[in-house]
Amino acid sequence: MEAYEFYWLDPKGGYQIIGVLPEKRKNSGRITKQSIMRWGKEVFGNDFDYEDIFFTQVTISEKTVRFFRPVPFTITQKEI
């Protein structure tokens, strides 16, 4: 199962995970970066500045419920 981990850029430094949203849309043509960010803003944006939220795509094993992240798992300032 594909999912998105949403992070918040803490003004004091570092990143804080704020939640994970599973992808359930069947039509992959509707999945865009903008639609994912809009969804994250609806769910998490009330308490955070929208400009300080970003996401990474992860895979969740339905058998083990473990997260598999792309290797290497790095987040650069440019990606934010």
Explain how this protein is built:
With 80 residues, this protein is α+β, with helices and mostly antiparallel strands. The chain contains 1 helix and 4 strands. Strands 2-1-3-4 form a 4-stranded antiparallel β-sheet, covered by helices on one side. The longest helix has 12 residues, at 33-44. The two termini are 24 Å apart. The model has no long low-confidence stretch (mean pLDDT 77).
Distance between the termini: 24 Å
Strand order of the largest sheet: 2-1-3-4
Shape: globular
Structural class based on helices, strands and sheet pairing: alpha+beta
Task: Provide the gyration radius in Å.
Answer: 13 Å
Write the H/E string, N to C: EEHEE
Question: Roughly how much helix do the residues carry, as a percent range?
Answer: 10-25%
Count of alpha/pi helices:
1
Main pleated-sheet profile: 4 strands, antiparallel
The number of strands is: 4
What is the average per-residue confidence, as pLDDT, rounded to a whole number?
77
Give the low-pLDDT segments: none
Strand content: 25-35%
